[in-house]
Amino acid sequence: MQNLIATGHTSTVISALRMTEALDAGPVYMKRPLSLYGLAEEVYLRAASIVAAMILEIISNAPVPTEQEGSPTIFKRRKPEQSLLPAQAGSLSLIFDHIRMLDAETYPEAFIPYGNLNITFSRPALKVQGILCDARITMGDSYAEKL
Q1: CA-to-CA distance for 147 and 140, rounded, in angstroms?
Q2: What DSSP state is assigned to residue 21?
Q3: Are 2 and 101 in contact (CB under 8 A)?
Q4: What predicted TM-score, i.e. pTM, was given to this entire model?
Q5: Cα–Cα distance for residue pair 106/118, rounded to 1 Å
Q6: 109-127 pLDDT, tens digit each
Q7: For the chain, what are the domain ranges?
Q8: CA angle 24-81-22, nearest 5°?
């Protein structure tokens, strides 16, 4: 999800696949759209609801999967240092996307190092005049030390 948001996507699909030895290569039982708007945690909750409904539908209807078309796009898991806010973002909406896509328990929050301090950002809200968000300042965070 983070990689999709970072590349400008606003939606994706959740696919129910038959497992095979190759990653994401099995036939498709069904696909459902997923909006990528909102904070990461909100997207995760929407995805969980969609997946639960898909599981029930598969159990109830036993659909026959169809072979995939094309080749899958596979992203590498983001590294903690990629949570650094870019110095030259170009727009407030890009900064907002960077903060919101990391605003979930499973990812290091967006941050900037400042001397021996680390400032992390969460709960962003994009406003006309700027971004409102929570900021936390800590001493000597390991993410900043990796830079």
Answers
A1: 12
A2: S
A3: yes
A4: 0.80
A5: 19
A6: 999 998 888 899 999 999 9
A7: 2-61, 80-145
A8: 10
